[in-house]
């Protein structure tokens, strides 16, 4: 019985490709809702995917850019509203 993956298969690449796609989707969603949460998550996932050598470098770079844009949008809204939190 073999409990580990065979030496010839690389499961890590598939995981990093998933991280790249997830960072892109979360960064895109973060522009619309919950940018204070989804932006940093997109940044972390994109950075990890790029460091681990994903095949989807463009998607990870877009996720990183969108995650940063989420935080910029948040800062712009906070500056325009002159507050740190939203009023409901």
UniProtKB/TrEMBL annotation:
<protein>
    <submittedName>
        <fullName>DUF4190 domain-containing protein</fullName>
    </submittedName>
</protein>
<keyword id="KW-0472">Membrane</keyword>
<feature type="transmembrane region" description="Helical">
    <location>
        <begin position="20"/>
        <end position="48"/>
    </location>
</feature>
<keyword id="KW-0812">Transmembrane</keyword>
<keyword id="KW-1133">Transmembrane helix</keyword>
<dbReference type="InterPro" id="IPR055338">
    <property type="entry name" value="YqfX-like"/>
</dbReference>
<feature type="transmembrane region" description="Helical">
    <location>
        <begin position="60"/>
        <end position="80"/>
    </location>
</feature>
């Amino acid at each position: 019985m073999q409990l580990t993956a065979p030496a010839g298969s690389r499961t890590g690449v598939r995981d990093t490709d998933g991280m790249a796609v997830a960072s892109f989707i979360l960064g895109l969603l973060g522009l619309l809702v919950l940018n204070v949460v989804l932006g940093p998550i997109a940044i972390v996932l994109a950075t990890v995917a790029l460091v681990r050598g994903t095949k989807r470098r463009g998607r990870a770079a877009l996720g990183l850019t969108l995650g940063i844009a989420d935080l910029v949008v948040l800062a712009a809204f906070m500056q325009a509203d002159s507050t740190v939190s939203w009023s409901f």
